[in-house]
Write a structure and sequence with these properties.
Elements (H helix, E strand, L loop, with lengths): L1 E7 L1 H6 L2 H10 L3 E8 L3 H7 L9 H8 L4 E8 L2 H9 L12 H5 L8 E3 L3 H11 L2 H4 L1
Antiparallel strand pairs: 1-3, 1-4, 2-3
The chain binds adenosine-5'-triphosphate and magnesium ion.
């Protein structure tokens, strides 16, 4: 059993597809262990994406992530990290496989609907970033 962190990004929340995206997880064997809607501060977004701090798109990424509320969830199941990444599709929705969340709900590489942890180690850290022990038990 694995856990991974999912974020439904501001574009998808604004579009009103929270339910449709959560349904993709539940319909594909991932349980929603915890979920909440939050408005990230600039500091939150900068910390969360600190790994990309030197990339040219960092400021745009942070601006986008704080442009409206997001929905953060802990997904649980067998191979949860890889399964979620598969359900999400490629970072650039134009390259995302048909039927994936990004192919169906994302506009472009900046506003790409969802985030998902890319390794088990990052999943543990990202879950701890957003959820307390009490919210997870
Ligand atoms: P995420 O971390 O959001 O789940 P990802 O793991 O598929 O996405 P990363 O390489 O971690 O992709 O990039 C984080 C985010 O930064 C992407 O979701 C995207 O919005 C943005 N991004 C990545 N590469 C580019 C790029 N070349 N140009 C513009 N934005 C980019
Ligand atoms: Mg990433």
């Amino acid at each position: 059993m694995e856990r991974t962190l999912s974020i439904i990004k501001p574009d998808a929340v604004a579009k009103g597809v929270i339910g449709k995206i959560l349904d993709r997880f539940e319909s594909n064997g991932l349980k929603i262990a915890a979920t909440k809607k939050v408005q990230l501060t600039r500091k939150d977004a900068e910390c969360f994406y600190a790994i990309h701090a030197e990339r040219p798109f960092f400021n745009d990424l942070v601006d986008f992530m704080i442009s409206g509320p997001v929905v953060v969830s802990v997904l649980e199941g067998e191979d949860a990290v890889a399964k979620n990444r598969k359900l999400m599709g490629a970072t650039n929705p134009k390259e995302a496989e048909a039927g994936t969340i990004r192919a169906d709900f994302a506009e472009n590489i900046d506003a790409n609907a969802v985030h998902g942890s890319d390794s088990l180690e990052n999943a543990v850290n990202e879950i701890a970033f957003f959820f307390s022990q009490r919210e997870l038990s």
